[in-house]
Specification:
The protein is built from 13 helices and no strands. The chain is an all-alpha fold. It has one domain: 2-methylcitrate dehydratase PrpD (Orthogonal Bundle).
Amino acid sequence: MFNSIAEFTEEANKTGKSLSDLMIEQEMAFSQTSFDEVWEKMEKNLVTMENAAAKSIEGDGVFSPTGLTGGDAVKIQKYRAAGKTLSGDRMMKGVQDALGTNEVNASMGVICATPTAGASGTLPGVLFSIDKTLHLSREQKIRFLFTSALFGMVVANNAMIAGAMGGCQAEVGSASAMAAAAAVEASGGTPDQSSYAFGIALGNLLGLVCDPVAGLVEIPCVKRNAIGAGNALIAADMALAGIDNKIPADEVVEAMRKVGRNMPRELRETGLGGIAGTPTGENIKFKIFGQTLKV
């Protein structure tokens, strides 16, 4: 099993194999299953992502049981149709699907955790956005997921992917970095460029706190997936343009781990600090639960 980003990028450069191939081979060896079985499981993940994005824009959209979130993906779809987006239609397509997927999660729908449920919108947002530009084949979309998984595995094993452990930098931050790296490979970039994109994206969100209002994965979690998608697309473009990252990707992961360990508990998914600790955030919590939550 690969223990670092430097290890698998070196292997890819040496063998000429794609990063997605390395992940597939590793999963086959680890799970003792065939290529077809590994591929089929990942394709199911893709189908789940596609279904969630599609569900989010049916009718007026999907809404959470609390009513705190929902319907924003439909608003973005209508806004895009007007043709006056400031950041471009392709970027806003990513925002739409990032918001929409996380709205499906908040509404108790079926999503694919990438790497967590709270960060489930970032990666499909990026994938479906670049598909509008690159017109990816089915195989390329599935390989995108394998590449992102390779980077995510290293983050999970060397740092953390849970907001309760390291803040939202570990969830949306990791998802954004994973998506950026995969987007580079899908665009024909090199393994090193994928590594740079990963480092840029994760570094941009270093220190992002996890502060869910009322302890629910809704506010500000849903909108942070949109920011994660936009950040990933920008980081991927920077890397593809030839911009490197002076701090190696593995060192960025280690920095994220240290920052996460130093975060006070109020900023690690307890719903006590940050946005959750604002007067409005406290009022929302009281309206939902009728009392102050004890953590």
